[in-house]
Write a structure and sequence with these properties.
- There is one protein chain.
- This protein has helices at 3-9, 18-52, 61-90, 92-110, 116-144, 150-175, 182-188, 197-203, 208-225, 232-238, 241-244, 249-271, 276-286, 291-320, 322-343, 347-361, 367-371, 381-390, 393-396, 398-409, 412-421, 424-430.
- The longest helix has 35 residues, at 18-52.
- The protein starts with a helix and ends in a 16-residue tail after the last helix.
- The protein has 22 helices and no strands.
- With 446 residues, the protein is mainly alpha-helical.
- It has one domain (17-206, 240-433): Growth Hormone, Chain: A.
Length: 446
Amino acid sequence: MSKAGIAASQPWYGSLDRRQWNTLVAANLGWMFDGYETYALLLTVGAALHQLLAPAQFAQIPTYAGAVIALTLLGWGIGGVIGGILADYIGRKRTMMISILAYSLMTGLSAFAWDWVSFAALRLLVGVAIGSEWATGASITAELWPDKARGKGAGLMQCGLGIGFFVASLVWLFVGTLGADGWRYMFLLGILPGFFTLWIRRGIPESPRWEQANLRRRAALERERGGALLQAHERALTRFTLLELFAEREVRRRALIAFAMSLATTLAWWGISAWLPPYVASVAAKAGLSGPQWASFAGMAYNIGAIAGYISLGFLADAYGRKPVTLFYFALAFITTPVVFLWTHDLSLLLAAACVNGFFSLGLYSWMPVWLPELFPTRIRATGAAFCFNTPRFIAWIGPLVAGTLIANFGGFSNAAMTVATIYFLGLVSAPFLPETRGKPLPETV
């Protein structure tokens, strides 16, 4: 049998080497740590604000919580764009290390907040650091994994977020019982990921695609400084990556469509599912049960579903295509929202519904590491992915603010969830306009 025939007969994982697996592990763990930091905030923000606010302000805790979450999300958008640009200029591996060190330090400092303003400011800085990691991991995984398995690698990378959410829920199940300062212990544990950078430094390679693109960029810049007349492809290399994203019509079109889809994904999640733990806690409290304990149960159930959803989207996208699978997830994320927030009142059934909703509403995020790196050439791949993934947060950060206000003043969690869920329709009408990229090589030109 020929080499091509042997390769075709192998299972998808049979053609992967150690450096490709190590890269996936690094990207997955980096995103898992991001998930821990993010969900630790969602689980503890109520407890933190009970300690940081005066008793007279307790009735407006959902509004203050929305502000803290929103500022974290705003910082995520800022840091994400910066991180994507850095990854295209200084490398995928180096940017990943810087981002993990930064958010480990900022998360640890969050434990020492003395009032809600200092807490919100520190969480803004955590968001800046967290945002810079995702595009790096998505880009390096896409560039090192083979075409036929790229979706699977992306889904396996993205599931790190759900694992991080689950770990945070599990840790809070125990730390939440340690008294009023339990939330501070949660953030102190966030220092630990910084040590992971020691392994990244030695355990994974830099992306060869980025190294080649970087050499071409340097050569073009050298020719420009020497006064040479540059060809079109050389001018593209010398142009600032964020500007280059909008210089060519087709690249610009893809970026704007993907932005709309990302906005729908992000605004819906932060405006709806981010409130699931406190919602379940409120249902449990009305039944005379422990709210923090049931919030942890809900977080674990939701994220078990999310982990399966992340991975499944990647595998399904490799089997059936990026476009139909993404549309399917958008539709089911919308349909399962009222199941959780309107139609299910029994706590046991609510955990099951949360698991199913997590599969689609959080699993939906996998369309981005699966599809986005395949839409942009190497010279701007991380910038393009980061722009689409992170800039919607400049709009989506108002989601928690709006939802918090709705919850506090206009009928509770259910009405707020269904109001925000309508944004899913933006994703449904946008996705058909992106090209199908299943099984195709990563583009060098568009």
